[in-house]
Amino acid sequence: MKRTRREFVKLAVGAVAAAEQLPRLGAQTGGAAQGAEPKMEYRSRFLHVQMAADQPNIAVLSVDSLGQNHLDGNVMLPLPPVGQTYRASCTRSTVEYHLPGTTGDPTWSFNFTESGIVIRTTYSAGNRHEPLVFSFDSIGSHATLLGLFDDEGAISLPALLHFPVRGTFRITTNAPNVSLGYDASRRTEDFVRVSFPHATRRQPQIEYRLEVTCIYPRGANVDKYPRFDGYRRDFLSILQLNPRRRALANNSASDTCADTIFEYAMMAISMPPLAEGLCALDLIRQTLDRFIGGMAAYGMKEYRNTPMLACDFLDSYPSLVLAAAIYVQASHDEVWIKRNYSVIQSWAYKMIVADVDDDGLMEYPLSGNSGSWPEKYLVRPSNWWDTVGFGHKDAYANALACKAFEGMAELAADLGISADAALYKSRAEKLRAVYWSTFYNPETGVLAGWKSADGKLHDYYFLFVNGVAVTYGLVTPEQGNKIWSRLLAKMKEVGYNRFDLGLPGNLIPIRREDYVIAEKRWGGSQKADGSDGFQIYENGGASACFAYFTIRALQILGRNEDADAILQPMLMGFKDGRFQGSGPNETTYDWTAWDGSPHGYEGLLVDNYLTLLAAMPSHGKEQ
Question: In whole angstroms, what is the distance from residue 77 CA to residue 136 CA?
């Protein structure tokens, strides 16, 4: 949906200020002439800001964390009308807002540097004590505030304000115990709101500093080559906090999913500190605490009493267990694991009891048989790929479970609980022992996606299944090279080479009888072979989601040229912002057909950004 925005008169400022120069605001000072607006604009290679004339707020904002003048567009929503018009004045680098008839300090002021904004609020008896509210376009910017929630659901400072593809502000304050209001929605309205409290009698002046920053794992080549620009701007983009769930989510206005938490943890352990006293692992702990406290999320049958979630997804509890193990191993937080071990143990127990036939593999209660899915979309299959008919013995979820059991064994061993450590180690070994024989399909030479209750293998050349099996050691190097030689040959055979768009989950169409939904919008089909839904959404659509496991598998196998052939175009895709944004007819670019036409729905799906982990210098050879 095209959005209209308030038009503001721009001051002609000439060429963009060079790095060593101060930016210029409009030369006009004092109040505006009656009926006119002050001409207030700031621009540097990191920032573009236009200030509102009638209220203390920003009308236009863009940021580029790399300082490359990529400052197109506007992340702000149009400002609402105000009941009381403020008097704005500006100098070379400062804009101040006073209520008419007041003297002394401004109620709000904004000072600009080349790579930051300093916002000050001052208390006086004559001022209105209203918060400063930034309303961001959630569809156009996918803004998120990253920090720790206080007891009231606000975000304590320091925190980060992050805009995928664009950049990041680190927000700090000189005042103690100050938190920012935070809300987001995509239901009746589309917005992300961040509220800065006004000064009070107890805190008569508060200063907020918004400093442009860029947070990513460093490396010589990563810092040198432009192809890593997307890596540098977006390594943080996998972290989006949903303020209403108080947990990490698909994006700040979307669902929290139990089966994705391990992905966030995988990247969090590699992130530099976010701010003084705040690291990415804190956000992982905060989200895990929500689950430990009883929160249900998508992928769990208690979530919103949704009939379609008749069973817990098989990958939900492995994801939570693995995330907990990653957090503890990286943070060495003995207090946390001692306090919460019994809950995490209960998650692992759910994985054990899911092995109903005691062969070492978890089984989903739904059969996964071809044709067993009702014509109307009533129930969902066993994992993240929730329109594909995974059921019964699920190759992806069981690979994740093996890694989770190993992580649980390490937690138990570190706590000195030897009986538990032996139990979880034996569960991982038992699962691994039957994995290849259960899922290997000699007819195709690769691992199938699932084995249904009737004994049939369902194999559509799933790249992510075979990638995760190698990544988590479910196959030997010899087996891994065998299946990946076959998959790369099949990829060439079907003509897929648009790696700038990511990878398809499957290389051939999923038959109608094995797809959970009939609507073509979501990859469903009318033809029995599924070809009329192919390349749409999870039926072979291209995405960066789970591409990490393909690239990482190739790196582990020593096939770095094959890995780079996929990764390097994807890095350019991240640089160009190809994995987010809106297309026509309410579609988005988190999923596309092989020609690049959009078929997604989230607008920003953080799972895409796991791919950037494969570009870290520590993964394989330095890129």
Answer: 5
At 478 the three-state DSSP class reads: helix
Whether 172 and 211 have beta carbons less than 8 Å apart is answered as yes
Tell me the sheet residues that pair with 111.
Answer: 94, 118
Reported confidence tier of residue 39, pLDDT bands at 50, 70, 90: low
Q: What is the mean pLDDT of the chain?
A: 91
Please name each of the domains of the chain with its CATH number. Answer: 41-213 (no CATH), 293-460 (1.50.10.10)
User: Taken in order 472, 380, 538, 575, is the CA torsion positive or negative?
Assistant: negative
Q: What is the largest CA-CA distance in the chain?
A: 83
Residues 163 and 277: beta-carbon distance below 8 Å: no
Hey, what are 181's tokens? 């209001």
Tokens 């009986």 belong to 419
Residue in 248, 245, 309 with CA at minimum distance from that of residue 610: 248
- Both tokens assigned to 539: 């039926």
- Rounded to whole angstroms, what are the CA distances from 274 to 160, 170, 213, 284, 336? 7, 8, 9, 13, 21
- Ordered DSSP codes for 492-544: HHHT---GGG-EESBSSPPPGGGBS---GGGT--SSTT-GGGTTBTTBT-EES
| pLDDT-based confidence at residue 305 (cuts at 50, 70, 90) | low
Tokens at 298, concatenated: 């998508």
Cα dihedral value 503, 509, 510, 516, nearest 10 = 80
Is 333 in contact with 419 (CB distance < 8 Å)?
A: no
For 4-73, where are the E strands, in sequence order?
Answer: 41-43, 47-51, 58-63
Measure the CA dihedral 168/140/299/389, to 10°: -130
Residues 6+ apart with CB under 8 A from 138: 184, 185, 186, 190, 191, 192, 251, 252, 253
Which residue type, as a one-letter code, is found at position 76? M
Task: Return the axis-axis angle of helices 395-414 and 418-439, rounded to nearest 10°.
Answer: 160
Residues in the chain: 623
Interhelix angle 261-268/280-292, nearest 10 degrees: 150
Q: Taking the model in full, what pTM does it have?
A: 0.92
- Given its phi and psi angles, is residue 47 left (phi above 0), alpha (psi -120 to 50 degrees) or beta? beta
What's the rounded mean pLDDT across residues 148-162?
97
- Helices and strands counted in the chain (H then E): 13, 26
Between 580 and 622, residue with greater pLDDT: 580
Per-residue pLDDT at 623: 32
Burial 557-581 (b: 16+ CB within 10 A, else e): bebeebbbebbebbbbbbbebbbbb
The predicted structure's pLDDT at residue 614: 97
Asked whether the bond before 158 is cis by omega within 30 degrees of 0, the reply is yes
Q: Does residue 399 contact residue 435 with C-beta atoms inside 8 Å? A: yes
Helix axes of 547-556 and 560-575: crossing angle, nearest 10 degrees: 150
